[in-house]
Amino acid sequence: MALDTKLCTFTGRMVIVGFGSIGQGVLPLLLRHIDGLTADRITIVTAEERGREEAEHYGVAFHNNPLDNDNFFQILKPLIDKGDFLVNLSVDVSSVALIEFCQRVGAFYTDTCTEPWAGGYTDSSLSPSLRSNYALRETALALRSRFEGGPTALITHGANPGLVSHFVKQALLNIAADTGVETDIPADRDGWGRLAQKLGIKTIHVAERDTQVSNQPKQIGEFVNTWSIDGFVGEGCQPAELGWGTHEKALPPDGRRHEFGCDSAIYLMRPGAATRVRTWTPLEGPFHGFLITHSEAISISDYFTVREGGKVVYRPTCHYAYHPCDDAVMSLHELVGKNYNMQAEQRLMMHEITGGMDELGVLLMGHPKGAYWYGSRLDIDTARSLAPYNNATSMQVTSTVLGGIVWTLENPTRGVVEPDEVDFRRVLDIAAPYLGEVVGAYGDWTPLQDRNTLFPEDIDEDDPWQFKNFRVV
Amino acid sequence: MALDTKLCTFTGRMVIVGFGSIGQGVLPLLLRHIDGLTADRITIVTAEERGREEAEHYGVAFHNNPLDNDNFFQILKPLIDKGDFLVNLSVDVSSVALIEFCQRVGAFYTDTCTEPWAGGYTDSSLSPSLRSNYALRETALALRSRFEGGPTALITHGANPGLVSHFVKQALLNIAADTGVETDIPADRDGWGRLAQKLGIKTIHVAERDTQVSNQPKQIGEFVNTWSIDGFVGEGCQPAELGWGTHEKALPPDGRRHEFGCDSAIYLMRPGAATRVRTWTPLEGPFHGFLITHSEAISISDYFTVREGGKVVYRPTCHYAYHPCDDAVMSLHELVGKNYNMQAEQRLMMHEITGGMDELGVLLMGHPKGAYWYGSRLDIDTARSLAPYNNATSMQVTSTVLGGIVWTLENPTRGVVEPDEVDFRRVLDIAAPYLGEVVGAYGDWTPLQDRNTLFPEDIDEDDPWQFKNFRVV
Ligand SMILES: NC(=O)c1ccc[n+]([C@@H]2O[C@H](COP(=O)([O-])OP(=O)(O)OC[C@H]3O[C@@H](n4cnc5c(N)ncnc54)[C@H](O)[C@@H]3O)[C@@H](O)[C@H]2O)c1
Ligand SMILES: NC(=O)c1ccc[n+]([C@@H]2O[C@H](COP(=O)([O-])OP(=O)(O)OC[C@H]3O[C@@H](n4cnc5c(N)ncnc54)[C@H](O)[C@@H]3O)[C@@H](O)[C@H]2O)c1
């Protein structure tokens, strides 16, 4: 695909809610690739002045008008009607409320994260189970039966969650080819689950190493990141969550099952910002990532579940293992050291980035070749050469948002849809030109490598892929 | 004291073993403050070319000649005789071997750390107990009885270990004055122990926050620190160790007692580089520091032990709670993430530092006013204005080394001596002009502040000063 290809035509109106790093990054892609989507058809509704200049540069209407549960209907109603598109790229705005609104008015919808209203991630009047992404996802999925066949609402379709679900499918096909397992491209969910089972996949990490740096050192009392700081801190304060595979021998001592919903995942009685796991990417090698909760951990484990006679016979463990940029690791360290009292200053790194890349992919483990990583290596210079208003991190997200919007318009009556249910090849094709190198690589890494040397460690030598071996204690 | 005061006269020869950040930083101070110590009387014996330029600048002989167990006698013998002074500021050279050598030839000795020969910190053929600073200290102290009345050998006398032992004494006197407890300056060890007991001190942290930064971002595969990288990694790989107070209700699950020696300390079955504790300094506020083993944790707990009828009736818990500069926190994170396989590159930050300070002091907790921090706030600009070849961190060390050398020459026949046995006022007076602001401050902080909010935590509400409350799990 060339960088000026028109991918589809859309002549409705579009509202972008939230215009931070992702909103700003996606706007040039939408204008570039969607025929008929002219600037005068787009309205931005956001909660601060950030981004006004860019909006004006493109001639797009910009409303600084924070949404809440009481005002969102009045604010959005005049802007969105049947056949229009609401692109939710905000924090602190309930995804479920906006999805329901769109279903009622007949508008398309997409977002990159199932967000609660402000404060929802840390509302300690809710149990950890109810503050989880598992609970948010169940609430969003509960809309399905109410709005079957409604206008497509593609939820959590960014890089991760989003793109990584597509990477998993491509990775499974690649592993099958490389290990001599013959398979068609599975036609349905059960087929995909059985392929993963057949290949022996036990654990899937979303293994990400962001190496972007700047020469502006992080200040004390400043949270620095390459994407939403509110978003990251919010999910970092939620319980660590992971899809819980059938090969796991024992629940972690601080692990809990939810008492409702699909039961594909567990949560730990601690925040992800304070929970580290061992993982691996081809360029970085072994490292410690944070087990930050993400909906893909839950949806992927759910999607690849194989049932026989109603009984779960196979499910992979799946979770995020995230090494954000170094300044964000330091920011987390400071945040946790101050008992989750947010820093006074925030800085979303963009122009000041001097180097580095986002190495983002999925790591599939347990098959005969050990560990296979498949993903995107996008460095900051490449990202900047591809589109304005992006860094390496945002571009992996915005290109997938573009792909999701195109797929939505091509599949307009699917109701509420998760990334795992989308045509992965269509989205990968659209996103690919923006992802830098898309590569697969095998590694002989296991979480038992170099363990038990300085001190005895409590590990399971018999099965390297037990969660207990990944976890850093 | 003025910056050109001559503090004492010394006309013997001096050998400086190791000429890294501390050796290079101390040389100008020694030439400035010790009468008779001319450049031609000093010889540097080190293991690399680093520092040659500075040595040549001052006209000091520079030998790049790494010492080991087989060659050290031959190399040092021609350079050191009765009445000379060996200043050991190296890594990877056995302190005990050099102390014994000095006792035999009749030379003075000082160092800032009890070092083993290369590889000693991570020799996994030794048990964690035998790889500890506790064991190293016992071996050094065992020389005492063999060389009673020998030339003074002042061990572990840098900033910490070293200066902080003197800070503790001054802090105790300040707390006594502020809480209306009448006391003379105690005359002996028992008197100091009883003062600490009377004041109700339960736990002492060496609470340090190094905020020095540069605009040269840490590279991947690079360990960055403001002082010895080998030294820091070495101690970070040793077991976490702490002086173990009589108020502690239960040994930590991974805590062990040693089966020999003074029994003032315990160790954890894990490296300090992976062990975090909650602490507090007046400027930084609450933060997570690393529980890196240091001999002061053991010696202070030992020194302030009160015995009655041979039975221990009082002892404070004491340990390091270290927040190195941000780049060093990132370097540790990378090191631990790669299972303690050392980075290929190292950078000891010096000229490139653009700002920040070393806030280094002792935090005495449990007395009626809660928590009292007493220490040095030295920023990089002040450090640079005071002496060349120093950053804020090294200057707190080198000024104390200077004070210790002067005290040694004034007290020449004490044999092997620890910082706690030195005249704290003499050293504080000498170091003070180089320490920036030396301040005391009370805080209402306890490790229970802001706990138990997002998730239930296993804490002891009845006694905030239990180690279990400080520890980050
Ligand atoms: N799936 C992925 O890969 C992925 C990646 C990055 C970000 N995200 C998600 O995308 C969303 C946006 O991320 P970002 O990096 O652009 O965040 P950002 O923090 O840069 O921007 C958030 C935007 O939301 C706006 N906003 C806040 N409160 C609002 C309100 N009450 N009403 C309307 N707008 C409001 C802000 O003004 C801002 O424009 C977040 O939910 C984030 O978690 C997903
Ligand atoms: N007590 C304190 O406050 C404190 C503070 C900082 C450093 N230290 C200690 O001081 C010592 C030096 O610290 P630094 O920051 O200067 O370290 P550094 O790493 O900058 O320098 C170490 C020096 O030792 C030399 N060396 C290495 N192997 C040697 C050998 N075999 N023979 C002779 N020399 C050898 C190196 O060449 C180098 O000159 C370390 O033991 C460190 O732990 C103590």
If you had to describe this structure to a student in words, what would you say it looks like?
- The structure is a homodimer of 473-residue chains.
- By secondary structure, chain A is α/β, with parallel strands linked by helices.
- Chain A is built from 14 helices and 25 strands.
- Chain A has helices spanning 21-33, 52-58, 72-76, 95-105, 133-146, 163-178, 189-199, 229-237, 295-303, 326-337, 380-386, 392-410, 424-431, 467-470; strands spanning 8-9, 14-17, 34-35, 42-46, 61-64, 85-88, 108-111, 153-154, 203-210, 213-214, 222-225, 239-243, 255-257, 265-271, 276-281, 285-290, 306-308, 311-314, 317-323, 345-348, 353-355, 357-367, 370-379, 416-417, 437-443.
- The first copy, chain A, has a 7-stranded parallel beta sheet with strand order 5-4-2-6-7-8-24, with helices on both faces. In chain A, strands 19-9-22-23-25 form a 5-stranded mixed beta sheet. In chain A, strands 12-14-13 form a 3-stranded antiparallel beta sheet.
- In chain A, a hairpin with a 2-residue loop joins strand 17 (306-308) and strand 18 (311-314).
- In chain A, helix 1 crosses helix 12, helix 6 crosses helix 7 and helix 6 (163-178) packs across helix 13.
- The termini of chain A are far apart.
- At the A-B interface, strand 10, strand 14, strand 16 and helix 10 of A face strand 10, strand 14, strand 16 and helix 10 of B.
- Bound molecules: nicotinamide-adenine-dinucleotide (NAD) (2 copies).
- One nicotinamide-adenine-dinucleotide is lined by residues 17-23, 45-48, 50, 66-67, 89-93, 112-113, 115, 158-162, 227-228, 230-231, 348, 397 of chain B.
- One nicotinamide-adenine-dinucleotide (NAD) binds at residues 17-23, 45-48, 50, 66-67, 89-93, 112-113, 115, 158-162, 227-228, 230-231, 348, 397 of chain A.
